[in-house]
Specification:
alpha/beta; about 25% helix; 3 domains; Rossmann fold; globular; single chain; seven-stranded mixed sheet; 15 helices; about 475 residues
Length: about 475
């Protein structure tokens, strides 16, 4: 039973860590009001401690190795004298170990909370740490099954399994409080009883959502249950992985393909959906959509272009096709904007509402936007749920006239709208243009889909009309594009 899961809340954190931190210190009390975080990014982006030093005026040591991010960090905290930015990559040993950095910056200070998120060497940093923070947040690799005890070799950009991190924590005198999708919450043994809970068992709170299973036909042809959470099947396939123990053999998929084996990624296998993408050795045989996304993956567009906008805490952002709310969470973490989410599938809308239940700046409506009020049957296909695809699992959804709904809710100006509604974008954009609502939107981030009848023709017509009021800032055909309003 994950007793602390109900306290999840995002202010700048990614998976509800802000709310869990608040509840932990409500129970154990605060001592020095001192927190540490690395990598700190710019001090706010997906930060687990921003709320502590920025809003609650704690002292903080924020460590970031990337020079460009460090410059942003230094500028961002310049008005907070109790916050020290420190530009280096933390290492397990030597002058850049956390213990040595603390000797230079905050010697003999009680650390209320330490947040470690460096995508790889987290285990070794914790293993070598002599300081004894009261609470530690540390990242684990959620794609590794729970029963596997696995730690990367240094600098492998792989991380450690939940089981390995759990064993290390116990050996260091810490107990498990809870887990989020990617983070452990640990507390010093001496403090644990103040929480008033029993230590949860890993198997009770570990999420299997990020696990991908590989199966093989009798001739050796492999099949995956879904595209992996951190996949690079198109983007990068050259690297080999190395672990502390030699029990695991890693197979490079590109080498696998060079033996002329077909890799079949069954995207919806668990739901018995036949949709699949086939990858062949010969690049000319890669299906069209796979070719389209290669340039997008190369620039890491989901983490750069889709999140980089001139927004702030006063901005209004509309997310059409919210799914699980991750894009909205990322935008909120970065800008603290007001966000309105439209998600017509009941299950997804409920998940979004629960995820942001304690965040009064994010509102979710269980409807879809369209050109008229109507009820439709949607094929349930997770993040590909669509009115234009066939599936045996259907659900009635409500679509509302965008113009009328915006008037009723007094939505008069939008700084950014994200549209990803699996074919419904054509009716929506045509409605926005026809009713001249388009001029009220500063940035339009849209994904067009080519499986809709006359998709290319309709897309071209919409783009021509958009040119009257907006211009493109990036454009990847049938992947993502953005239209910024003309001055």
């Amino acid at each position: 039973m994950n007793d602390f899961a109900k306290y999840k809340k995002n202010i700048t954190s990614q998976w509800g860590e802000d709310g869990i931190i608040t509840e932990i210190f409500k129970r154990i009390g605060v001592q020095e009001k001192f927190c540490i975080e690395f990598g700190a990014w710019d001090g706010k982006h997906l930060s687990n401690v921003w709320n502590l030093w920025h809003e609650m005026k704690w002292s903080a040591l924020l460590i970031e190795g990337d020079k460009n991010k460090c410059r942003d960090l230094e500028q961002f905290v310049s008005d907070f004298p109790k916050v020290k930015p420190y530009c280096t990559y933390v290492e397990a040993e030597g002058i850049n170990s956390l213990d040595k950095i603390l000797e230079k910056t905050f010697p003999n200070k009680i650390i209320d909370i330490l947040s470690i998120d460096i995508d790889g060497n987290d285990y070794y940093i914790f293993e070598s740490l002599k300081a004894k923070p009261r609470v530690i947040i540390i990242e684990y690799n959620p794609t590794i099954p729970l029963h596997i005890d696995l730690v990367q070799k240094t600098d492998e950009y792989f991380g450690a399994s939940a089981l390995s991190m759990y064993k290390l924590a116990h050996s260091k005198g810490y107990k498990l409080v809870t887990m989020t999708e990617t983070n452990f919450f640990l507390i010093n043994d001496n403090e644990f009883k103040k929480l008033g809970i029993n230590e949860p068992a890993l198997e009770d709170i570990f999420s299997t959502d990020n696990l991908t299973y590989i199966m093989t036909a009798y001739d050796g042809t492999p099949a995956l249950t879904k595209i992996p959470t951190y996949h690079n099947i198109i983007k990068r396939t050259e690297r080999e992985l190395h672990f502390n123990e030699n029990e695991f053999i890693t197979i490079n998929l590109k080498k696998y393909k060079q033996e002329n084996l077909l890799i079949k990624l069954f995207l919806k296998l668990l739901n018995k959906v036949s949709l699949k993408i086939d990858f062949y050795t010969n690049k000319n045989n890669i299906d069209l959509q796979s070719k389209r996304v290669i340039p997008w993956f190369k620039i890491n567009g989901d983490k750069t272009l889709r999140l980089d906008y001139p927004l702030n805490s006063s901005s209004v952002v509309v997310d059409v096709g919210g799914y699980e709310g991750q894009w909205a969470s990322d935008i909120f973490a970065k800008y603290n904007s007001d966000i309105i989410i439209f998600e017509p599938v009941k299950q997804f809308a409920q998940q979004i509402e629960e995820r942001f239940s304690k965040n009064n700046k994010i509102t979710c409506y269980n409807v879809g936007l369209s050109n008229i009020d109507k009820t439709e049957k949607i094929s349930l296909l997770d993040d590909s749920s669509s009115l234009f695809k066939n599936n045996t699992q259907l659900e009635n959804i409500t679509l509302v006239n965008t113009n009328n709904f915006f008037e009723q809710k007094n939505i008069n100006s939008i700084d950014l709208i994200k549209i990803n509604i699996e074919g419904g974008e054509y009716d929506l954009l045509e409605n926005l243009i026809e009713n001249k609502l388009i001029s009220k939107i500063k940035n339009i981030q849209v994904q067009f889909h080519d499986f809709v009848p006359n998709a290319k023709e309709r897309m071209a017509n919409i783009q021509e009309k958009l040119k009257e009021t907006h211009h493109t800032t990036y454009q990847y055909e049938f992947v993502w594009e953005n239209w910024e309003r003309n001055n």
